[in-house]
Amino acid sequence: MKALLLFIFGSVILLQYSCSTEPENDYTYFKIMVDSISHSGIISVDDTLKIKFYGFVGPDGCHKFSRFEEHKNNNVLELIVWGYKPNFQTACPEVLVYLDGEEYKTVLNQIGIYHIKINQPDNSVFLDSVYVL
Predict the structure, then answer these.
(1) 74, exposed or middle or buried, with CB in 10 Å at 0-12, 13-18, 19+?
(2) Number of helices and strands in the chain (H, E)
(3) Which domain holds residue 106?
(4) CB 22 within 8 A of CB 84
């Protein structure tokens, strides 16, 4: 009976990992170059800051925006904009893909100047700021 249970448990584990379709295996993630952003220059404390992002994502319809990666430290808001493309061959629409105002939202809860740092793929940093009253 023990052997049968071990066999069943082992088979389930093996199937779970051998049939994995995790996105990390199917896609390559990359940083997106941000050309510009738009947001309110002044917001009230505990209000939501909304930043719209603009930039080139990729040369075909298989390149897509993925997510924003955020790191807050005191009065610094550090962001990375991530995209992804498939690792497998597929027919990709012939279209240039842009961020087109992809929106990021966060709540800032300290009064003062927040420095916005956007880490770019070429290791440069896009800088901006917002006043929180």
Answers:
(1) exposed
(2) 2, 11
(3) 23-132
(4) no
Cβ-defined contacts of 117-121 (< 8 Å, 24+): 117/76, 117/77, 117/78, 117/79, 118/34, 118/37, 118/78, 118/79, 118/80, 118/81, 119/31, 119/78, 119/79, 119/80, 120/31, 120/33, 120/34, 121/30, 121/31, 121/32, 121/33
Q: Which of 34, 46, 25 is nearest to 132 (CA)?
A: 46
- 36 lies in some domain: yes
Number of domains in the chain: 1
Look at residue 47 and tell me if it is in a domain. Answer: yes
Does residue 16 belong to any structural domain of this protein?
Answer: no
Taking only the tens place, the pLDDT of each residue in 61-116 is 999 999 999 999 989 999 999 999 999 888 999 999 999 999 999 999 999 999 99
Best CA proximity match to 101, nearest among 45, 64, 50: 50
